[in-house]
Amino acid sequence: MKSRLRKSLVVALAVPALLAGTVVSTASSSAGAAETVVEDEQWPQPNDGRYGLHGIVLEDAVPGVSGEGSVSSLSNNTASEGEMLCTSLEDKNCASGYYYQALLAPCSATITIDCIEGITSISSTQVAVPGTYKEMFPKKGANEFDGSVEKGVPMGRTPSLWTLSGAPHAFGSDYLVLVSVSGSKTLKAKRSFSASLVPVSIFQTDCIPEVNGYCIDTFRQQYDANGKGRISFAGVAADFGKYRCVGWAENAKCALGHAFPAGFSYELKVRLASEPVGWLHGRMQNPNIDFATIDGKTTVSVTAAPVRVPTVAGLGLWPDLPADIQKWFTDNCPAWCGGRIDGPMSSDPMLRNAFSSPRVYSQAAFNELKLWTNFIKDRATVLASQWRVRTLSNSEMGSAGTCINSATGVTGIVTTNSLLYSEGPPTFNTETKTLNYKVASPHYEKDGTTEFKGVYNLTVRDDIAECLYGFSKTLAAPSTVYAEETEYTEPDVEQYVDSVEATYDEAATEADFSEEEPLVEEVTLEDVEADESSLTLDEPVDEVVVARVAADVVTELQKTAAANTTIDLSDGWFKFAATNFTFSAPTVKVAMGVNPAKTLTCIAGTSVKKVTAVSPKCPTGYAKTVTKYCVKGKTVDVVVAAAPRCLAKFSAATAIECGRGASAKRVIDVKPKCPKGYGLVTSVVCIKNTSVRLVTMVRPQCASGFAKAVTLTCAKGKRTTKVTALKPACPKGYKPKK
After folding, report:
1. Number of helices and strands (H, E) in the chain?
2. Which string of b and e fits 428-439 if b means at least 16 CB within 10 Å?
3. In the chain, how many domains are there?
4. Looking at the structure, do residues 44 and 6 belong to the same domain, yes or no?
5. Are residues 9 and 49 in the same domain?
6. Final residue in a domain of this structure, among 384, 419, 441
7. With a threshold of 0.85, does the pTM exceed it?
8. For residues 679-694, b (16+ Cβ closer than 10 Å) or e, as one string?
9. Residue 88 has what pLDDT?
10. Do residues 503 and 380 share a domain?
11. Are strands 115-122 and 99-103 parallel, antiparallel or unpaired?
């Protein structure tokens, strides 16, 4: 039964809505595109230059929000010439070596690789509408360069505008797409990757070069007194303190960033000359990222929903700041501070203007958020929606273990809506055998009363999980001898779960999962009886049973927080999700293994509870329920109790499941038989490397590449246990039962 099987293997079923609408507040705006409301996405950074003002801004903005990430560049750095910009690989300044950041253009007749294949919106009802390419923005970049297919260097172009008619937002249907590939001549095989999608409207600004300096983002070629070159980025500041532009184009036009419409996911497809390398980090929910490599070319497909990410801004005049914050500025300024006033920063707090803006994945950011928590009342300033993913830099990968750092290709993906997050991929704790990832955000949304709920998705390649966890020690490698075993069925799901658990090393089980908190759910006896009477069956039922083992969100006080958690294995990736947990500074801990969780129904009088855990036990005073089927003529009575009994004149019966195509029937009788044309539904356990599947159908068969497992019954005195594996062996002290 697919419905009952799923309930016994998945701990949490609830998934929150893809994206709540971004809150807007009534205000005037200097951006003509939004005169009556100011979205969180249009929150202007503080532009207050008063003396004595001190503050913090913690923000993880979209790469390219009027920044270096929105501009292509090709350059080199030599001892003789210094830093020099190039317009192509033929440029003499880049003959000996080069570094590049290439914004990718849409695929066309002239650009067929390292290009954007398309963007598609997907509604909450799964209606997919492809977007249409509109134009480059700007039409020509200040630092564009020509690459080379032979040398694996993309054409460096600009961001592109696309129209997504299937997902209109509050200001139109235009979206800015920024996809970039970065690399160098010396590290040709290690190209980084980033992609961002932003709803936008085009706004004519009043930026004037004579007054504002620059009205389009660019890298400047400069020279020092000795004639050596140096490169500096010149970004537009005309919007600072007024509105937010995510890209600039010719004639001082800018793309204003807006909120994503609620209920939509987006799919981005990109053709690359080679697969990205390393670990990916993203701002999205429920990501599905696929890499298809054919003839040495890789198509990357990213499908996900956006998330809202908080920003924190705290400001105060020196006399109004608490002593611990004053001490921080005294100890750390001017070395770790920036300000809104030009010139040297004074040591006198009333004669300086100082702000701190640490990177959101640095330990400094965690420390400073904690320092400011009471002052900001533990709430976000704004919550801006985002959809983006990027490869972590080499400097961010320092904490990664050997299993991750020594691998090739994309090894894993972490996406979260948390403001602060651990640097690099999750760290593997060899003692607890958990992947740990620290996150931190304000506890409340900007209204100060609504709890901000966390989203965390972890995707790990199965060979990386094998390296970390050593699954092969538990499940033997496929064997042709056992693959040819005669017919094997295991109709009892609970018995199957028990047998799979028995394959896991007992010592590891005690060490890893003894502290697991079971999920206890209050239910009614009527619900249990109705569930026992129901039957739904698809053909085939192919369940991945490498399920939740231990997936906890642990708060700073080392207490387990409430969270919805699921984990499965599909298409060669372990996929874990934790949602609906609260902050301020939790650590997400994930342990994976072959022990699926199961559900035990317990009863005490009229009170019924379902307990879900790896090894569930009834609470004190409760007993395990037993289901008994009773028949009298054509009347069937389902009795669920600790010691069920049939009513007078009813006879005890047996239930079997019968299937034909997608149709399923439950037959309950003293001697049940399947109706004509229906076959008995049974199950078979199939194993392929670290994948374990339970296939339930009429005449079940293992999929290609999977081998049929064998169940061995083992005895120790009066105790018996079952072991299911390709090469099952009895636990220590047990012997095969004859």
Report:
1. 10, 49
2. beeeebbbebbb
3. 2
4. no
5. no
6. 384
7. no
8. ebbbbbbbbbbbbbbb
9. 93
10. no
11. unpaired
